[in-house]
Amino acid sequence: MGGYSNLRGFYGGEVFGTGAWLGRIELANDLPVARFSVFSDVGWAGDRDAWTFEDPYVNVGAGASLVDGLFRFDVAR
Asked: What pLDDT is attached to residue 36?
């Protein structure tokens, strides 16, 4: 996991293993021309036998989507 498609703010493939879980929350306005949002992602990946909710990867950030999603910009930490 990692990268813009699931854990924004982390490099793609930074978190990996045979099992994983992911959660996401995003709040945004409903204007199609310019949509602004705040979000948080949380996830974990590792050995399926060591499955746990302890020490997950977490981010928070803000984003903007322009022209009904044609352009999207996210900043996460």
From this structure: 96
pTM over cut 0.85: no
CA distance 8 to 21: 15
Q: 50: which 2 tokens? A: 């060591």
Q: Compute φ and ψ for 48, nearest 5 degrees.
A: -55, -30
Letter string b/e over residues 37-70, b meaning 16 or more CB atoms within 10 A of that residue's CB:
eebebbbbbeeeeeeeeeebbebebebebeeeee
Burial of 8 (0-12, 13-18, 19+ CB in 10 A): buried
d(CA 40, CA 10): 13
Q: What is the pLDDT of residues 4-48, one digit of tens each?
A: 778 888 888 888 889 889 999 999 998 878 999 999 999 998 898
